[in-house]
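job 3f2a | input accepted
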Amino acid sequence: MDEATPNRITFSGADGVTRLAARLDRPQGPMMACALFAHCFTCSKDVFAASRIAEGLTRHGIAVLRFDFTGLGASEGEFANTDFSSNLDDLVAAADWMRQTLEAPKILIGHSLGGAAVLAAAARIPEALAVATIAAPSDPAHVQHLFTGSLEAISSTGEAEVRLGGRTFRIRKRFLDDIANHRLEAAIASLRRALLVFHAPGDEIVGIDHASRIFVAAKHPKSFVSLDDADHLLRRREDAIYVANVIAAWAGRYVGAVEPTATNATAAAKAAATSEGPQPVTVAETGQGRFQQMVTVGDRHRLYADEPVAYGGTDTGPSPYDLLAAGLGACTTMTIRMYAEHKNIPLQRVAVTLTHRKVHAADCAECETKTGKIDHIRREITLEGDLDDATRKRLLEIADRCPVHRTLHSEVWIESRLAG
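job 3f2a | predicted structure (420 res):
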């Protein structure tokens, strides 16, 4: 029986005896898919990149299993007794555990040598539909350069202690022989899964040429995303979150979109709404941070709402007032566009910039309220095209006719009731 605590589990490795330590990060809301993450060489499941990418993916409805390979982190066994092949076996064992316990992984993610591992193991995980590599070598033998000063000792005595990342590891000749026997070109060419390659041009550990070889060897569908000035280990939080967001958006095309959780009231609203009528808007807490919300519009549109860090949020989405301003801005541009088309006005592009703040009522000469503070939305409209002054003035007047603008200036009836 596999032991389990909140998020932390153990499962049997490929040998059926060694217990491997793992962490399962699950989304608070509905689950779109499961992902299996393979960490970098000699790293652990808790390395910054793995933990932050997992955190980011759960916000998009993707559950992530990350585990320590044999002899690393909290897993049992001796690292010296492992090699690339045994790591692949453990990766497949992790997928087996997911298949039996939750759901087989549809997404495989590998960082550094873990990227080479998921490319090699993908064929043994039939449910996997999408594979993403991050700073991955195109050949497992690339890691041999880490042992340059110990290669002679390893060859002559069969093993040697090597200092990597501030820690000492015993590397045996069987490891070098094993990585030398693994060639990924054929595995990549026959992947038959969507592939996403992340790599930073300035990566000093695994050069960008490795990403080029992986990409060229792969068949479509394949994509490449540059990580700009990120370092090999993605130590900056923003780099890891960026990777997570891109993976979630990209993988959704292949594994399907998450279905929003519906309350009875929401389900009834959906049933009542037609494809041509107003769509119900559902806003629900995700459980991530204090204020993060999932906003679902109808059956197709999803986005996060949050508060800035300064107000206790995690800044993963626009604030409620940002969304209000966005609604007014979108309505403004659409209304101007419709009028321009109707009047055959050569308007090339319209853009609106809005800001919201609280101001003293006394500062507004046109307002009826004269005491306390009021809401002030500043709307700056940019019109591009061959337009004379009279036309520009007329389009500015039309902006005030947008339905959302009128709603904000009219009496609004908001009815609140408990669902159920």
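job 3f2a | The CA atoms of residues 270 and 325 lie 26 Å apart.
job 3f2a | closed
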